[in-house]
Design a protein that fits this description.
alpha+beta, Collagenase (Catalytic Domain), Neutral endopeptidase, domain 2, 2 domains, four-stranded mixed beta sheet, two-stranded antiparallel sheet, 27 helices
Amino acid sequence: MRMKPHLPREYCLGFVPKRLVLALAVSAAVSAQAANSSQFPSAGISSNAGTYTIDQTRLLPFNAFKVGDLDKSIDACHDFAGYANARFLAAHPVPSDRTSWGSFDMLEERSRQTQQQLAEQAAVNKSPKGVDKLIGDLYATGMDVARINAAGHTPIKAELDAISRLSNKEQVAEYIRVEAAKGRGTLFDFWVAPDFRAPGTNMAYVAQAGLGLHDKTYYTAANRKNVLAAYEVYVANILKLIGVSGADAARQAADIVALEKRLAHVSLSTEEVARDWELEYNPVTLAEADRLTPNFSWTKFFQSQGVAAPDKFSLPMPGFHQEVSRMLAEVPISVWQSYLKYHAASAAAPHLSDAFVQEHFRFYSKALRGQEEKETRAMHVLTTINSGAAEALGQLYVKVAFSPEAKMRMEALVANIGKALKTRIEDLDWMSPETKKKALEKWTSFEPKIGYPDKWRSWDGLRTGRDSYYDNLQALQKFNHKWTLGKIGKPVERNEWDTWPQVVNAYYRAARNDIVFPAAILQPPFFDPNADDATNYGGIGAVIGHEMTHGYDDQGARFDATGKFENWWTPADAQAFAQRTGQLVKQFSGYKKLGENVNGKLTLDENIADLGGLATAYDAMKAATAGKPDPMTGGLTNDQRFFLSWATVSRRNMKDDEARLRLSTDTHAPAQFRVIGAPSNMPAFAAAFNCKPGDRMVIGDADRVDIW
């Protein structure tokens, strides 16, 4: 996964849609190698966390490639995805409490099961301190369903009452500012990240938000009308749960959807933002921002956050903010009250009584994604904990699920993949020496981070208890917001992570030029200390190469070795790069899923990373195995096992509704096209499986794409 210069958006092989939660409940066991606790012993990391143990029998077994997975009735040269994964996927349908199921999901399930045991132990700790107390309080109160149900919507009543008292546009604007100070943004997203032009210093960023659906196209596209209609019903049902009568709820829901439609028309689509990160950078002074939005004072906004006024902050998508300002004056106060009440209740719904949880599930998970059953309560609570206190839980996780040996092996793999990438850059025949020099400077400055942070975040000052789940979450939300605000104008912490050890993830950050591999991904099928080189290079090796290549994808290549947003390309090289990426867009736009074409523009950066990452990992594998006899494990050559390992980590079943959602919003291509896309452009694949010109997995010389 390539990350934007600020926040993680989705996983390397997975995806979390906006405002949605991945279902991560226990499901049927899979046919895979047995868990081996000695393989990944306790890391023995020094921390203030207590002692924890993990019952390996409660964990989903590892999912690793086996020769028996191959469907030899399918020709690998015509359908490599089917050849490698069809039998496995047929035997492992999507469980009823999930929307996708495959290698990524299974390993994440194992991580969640580990986290559950940790949270259970923290919850019964008689004298907890530090992160033990934080995780214990959150889990214990989250699992107290009787108390949560008894409270109904009482936890948000004061907020709803405050909205009812709003009587003019100034009060609406002030309410938005006050709620933002609690970490609850409605009309815009707020974050702090390195300044695009001065990456050593943190800057505040504010961008468009305010929509209940995942993308503006859900409000504007004809083929999304059914979704919008279902959303309006959901809005009305949420209003009913907070006491609005049926007729009034329907009327207010229509008003709310109309308001969001207006916002959608001035919002940028996921594709637009994904293809041009500069759209998120528009540095302005407070005076300039105030002139842009006369009905919403940004000077007062930063005052309300309790921080010193910044010299500048980024206010991208200015047309959106201008429209919000006009709407504050033009939209009736009663409509604003309905909109704000609905969003307050919908945001809180997953953490309130069963009626709210069920309604939220019915729309966002069942109607929109095809999920048949809710995840277990435990997994639901863990998802919430990971949304706000993930690093605290990660501090416990690495004590039981990551070994120093795994880290050392990964460091060697990263070094070998890096050498292979350097050679590939040096050997590029389409790039001038001038641009190549800059590309190599960026390569030199890559900073890998493996396993877990060198320094854990402090939670001093956060107060939680065993009385109220919702109060704990609000305290956590406000604490995190204040922690974020404290970074504005300060030097960037180079060692800070944007994800956490227990997440099956890997990412690249352009503003820091670092590549990060959390502990949870360093397990089969991605990484196996007992597997042969070909298998590991085709799995985690390709992931390492993928993340490195993100430094040179169509957006990452706009940042230099220091993380500065700066053009380091000659015009001729930029044109040659665009010609090659255009070919890749065309290739992936030719794939179809459920009758819809893959969006080759939306998925471009991930496809570049897949192509470059797999080619780089292959070169590194060949170097690592040079001069050694091929073990022919399972009757397969090194090259065959390499490509089959790549196919294994990408295998995935998916509900149709989930797949349709991702076609519009996910920067990753569907799994089966990731399996075949990069290999079909590599002559090494054709050679490994004796493919011939004209086979579907052999792209001809004229159309074959080779970028990095």
